Structure to design on (563 residues):
């Protein structure tokens, strides 16, 4: 039958995770449909229809989906689920919020955060903060899966899928959107940036994070953080990289004043190249860093800024 | 209002988890076990609701082996009122846990269930949402802040883009994120008192739930290992290597 992929988007465009999920979905071997639920979301729907490998894009454009609530989103997916063998959503705070509701109502065990499709019913997924990888086989029947986007290449564009408008699903009327405080930044998104510069407790204050931001701006990088830096209030929660934050896999990850706890590594160890700056030469981060600099960051970071400036970055 | 808090016994977050050589799972031999950290946050939040007079009773539930009664005891020592242990053997998947919790909710009729956003062993992150769905209740996941009224809860949530606030009708399920609160340590008097608090013992069958896993774990293996690279002496050398050797500076 068919695989349904729930697109992640901001109405105007698709988030990176969507094209990557399509790649995972195609590996299930069945035709792929994309669901774009939003409000005034024709931009996202158009982009979805251009993803290679997607057969049909279902567009539910309705005020009900202006802000995605788990209850309404799960109800919409359930109203479509009959026609699908598998439902995929991203392992973001979006997909993680609504998809388990879908799995429960379908009486299906969800497979969270897959890293690899071994066979159409068999998947690899991380457990224990990535200290181990589990290979699991789903029972016959529908599959409900969240996908770790960084583990898959993005599907190419240049396709021309059929776009079909669909009616909104039911409104369970259980919850409502009140407001949001989104981090605003001109920098690339943490999960899709080519370079990430992250700071930890060693940064000591939110003021000194500006040192990192200046480096990041020269490198067109995103800024991330350890849990300790977020807990201390140096940066907002959406900067957190790790087991219980965001998973990133950039070309280059620069860890500054981060010790390298397993919970942090879980979110960045698949980066292509890792550089670490830490004043403690025994810091565990050096065990996985390709390039380690033992130095006081308050000396090294201003120096790096100067040097980047000199080199025209 | 009653508040129900499910707590899971997991390998302590400080333990370096090792995969067994036969690839059947991870090694539990002589390993320190603790309450899942997100569940500690859940217990703390529930106790604070009680201290503020918003909750009448806090019930801690654990689904797991006999030893999970220690995890319940920890919750009782922090200040929960009573416990329910649903004894199981081997792995229990989130869906089965949610079904057992649903049956307990049908009996106990809590107005709020607070779960952790994920357990740090299977990292599945499903139980709270599944429970909410099975009960037909709303959910506030990844909670950063809770404001509770008679009939509604306003929950600020940690999302990928920042923070979002939703209002949910009660009864509801909330799942905790790291910044919701800082859990207390159990005090000595708390530990003494906990010894006298009741823990009811049940089985999945008492709730009519078949807890047999539905997913088949074919193997558990070590992730690919990264090798330590080289130490550089200066910032200049670091940038040179990143540019010329690694080719990642553009
Ligand atoms: C349930 C749970 C979930 C968690 N989830 C996450 C997660 O998702 N992400 C995450 O990151 N953590 C997570 N953690 C926390 C994790 O265990 C560590 O506590 C955390 O990663 C430590 O952050 P840190 O490296 O910034 O701080 P520390 O471990 O305190 O390290 C600070 C480092 O800075 C260095 N330093 C200090 N001053 C300087 C200086 N002037 N110059 C250079 N170096 C300096 C020190 O040598 C040290 O190595 C979680 C923990 C738990 C229990």
């Amino acid at each position: 039958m068919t695989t349904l992929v729930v697109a992640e988007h901001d109405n105007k465009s698709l988030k990176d995770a969507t094209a990557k999920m399509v790649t995972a979905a195609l590996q299930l071997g069945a035709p792929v449909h994309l669901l774009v639920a939003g409000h005034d979301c024709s931009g996202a729907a158009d982009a979805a229809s251009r993803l290679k490998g997607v057969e049909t894009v279902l567009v539910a454009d309705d005020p009900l989906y202006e802000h995605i609530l788990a209850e309404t989103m799960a109800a919409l997916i359930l109203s479509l689920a009959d026609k699908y063998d598998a439902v995929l959503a991203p392992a973001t705070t979006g997909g993680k919020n609504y998809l388990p509701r879908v799995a429960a109502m379908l009486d299906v065990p969800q497979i969270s955060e897959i890293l690899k499709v071994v066979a159409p019913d068999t998947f690899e997924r991380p457990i224990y903060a990535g200290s181990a990888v589990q290979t699991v086989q789903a029972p016959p029947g529908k599959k409900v899966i969240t996908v770790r986007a960084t583990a898959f290449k993005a599907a190419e564009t240049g396709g021309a899928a059929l776009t079909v408008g669909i009616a909104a699903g039911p409104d369970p009327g259980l919850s409502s959107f009140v407001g949001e405080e989104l981090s605003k930044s001109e920098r690339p998104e943490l999960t899709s940036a080519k370079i990430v510069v992250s700071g930890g407790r060693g940064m000591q204050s939110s003021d000194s994070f500006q040192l990192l931001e200046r480096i990041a701006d020269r490198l067109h990088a995103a800024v991330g953080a350890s849990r300790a830096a977020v807990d201390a209030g140096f940066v907002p929660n959406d900067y957190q990289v790790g087991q219980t934050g965001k998973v990133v896999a950039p070309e280059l990850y620069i860890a500054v004043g981060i010790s390298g706890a397993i919970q942090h590594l879980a979110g960045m160890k698949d980066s292509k190249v890792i550089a670490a700056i830490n004043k403690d030469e025994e810091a565990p981060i050096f065990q996985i860093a390709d390039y380690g600099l033992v130095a006081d960051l308050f000396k090294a970071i201003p120096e790096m800024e100067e040097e980047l400036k000199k080199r025209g970055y | 209002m009653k508040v129900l808090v499910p707590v899971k016994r997991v390998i302590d977050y400080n333990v370096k988890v090792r995969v067994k050589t036969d690839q059947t799972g991870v090694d539990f031999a002589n390993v320190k076990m603790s309450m899942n950290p997100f569940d500690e946050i859940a217990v703390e939040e529930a106790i604070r609701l009680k201290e503020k007079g918003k909750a009448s009773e806090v019930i801690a539930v654990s689904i797991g082996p006999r030893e999970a009664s220690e995890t319940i005891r920890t919750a009782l020592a922090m200040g929960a009122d009573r416990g329910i242990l649903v004894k199981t053997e081997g792995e229990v998947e989130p869906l089965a846990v949610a079904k057992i919790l649903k049956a307990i909710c049908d009996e106990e009729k809590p107005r709020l269930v607070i779960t952790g956003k994920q357990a740090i062993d299977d990292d599945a992150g499903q139980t709270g949402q599944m429970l909410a769905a099975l009960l037909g209740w709303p959910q506030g996941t990844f909670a950063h802040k809770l404001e509770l009224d008679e009939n509604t809860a306003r929950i600020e949530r940690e999302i990928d883009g920042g923070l979002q606030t939703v209002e949910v009708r009660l009864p509801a399920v909330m799942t905790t994120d790291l910044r919701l609160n800082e859990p207390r340590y159990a005090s000595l008097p708390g530990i003494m008192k906990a010894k006298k608090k009741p823990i009811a013992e049940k089985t999945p069958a008492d709730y009519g739930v078949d807890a047999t896993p539905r997913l088949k774990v074919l193997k558990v293996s070590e992730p690919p290992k990264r090798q330590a690279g080289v130490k550089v002496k200066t910032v200049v050398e670091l940038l040179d290597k990143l540019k010329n050797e690694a080719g990642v500076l553009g």
